[in-house]
Amino acid sequence: SYSFKFVNDGKSDLVITSAKGSCGCTVPEYPKDPVAPGEDGIINVTFAIYHPTWHRNIIKFFLRNDGRSFT
């Protein structure tokens, strides 16, 4: 598990509407309430590998607080 700390350096509330792992072995947990400007938040990511072999996983975050969504 790892906790990614972030700060909302925008001028409006940051609302995270979704967080997904690239596979079933990566499970993110994100704040469900808006993060106010200047406040910090944490995204916890749990990585559970089911087979004891080498595995590579990439975690990407896409955040915006301008009211538009990613397409």
Mean pLDDT: 79
Roughly what percent helix? Answer: under 10%
Total strand segments: 3
Low-confidence stretches: none
Rg calculated over all Cα atoms: 14 Å
Number of helices: 0
Apparent shape: elongated
* β-strand amount: 25-35%
Structural class: mainly beta
What do these coordinates show?
The protein is mainly β. The chain has strands spanning 2-7, 26-29, 40-47. Strands 1-3-2 form a three-stranded antiparallel sheet, with no helix packed on it. The protein is elongated and about 40 Å long. The model has no long low-confidence stretch (mean pLDDT 79).
Give keywords.
71 residues; mainly beta; three-stranded antiparallel β-sheet
Topology:
Layout: E1 2-7, E2 26-29, E3 40-47
Antiparallel strand pairs: 1-3, 2-3
Quick structural overview:
This protein has 71 residues and is mainly beta. Helices cover 0% and strands 25% of the residues.
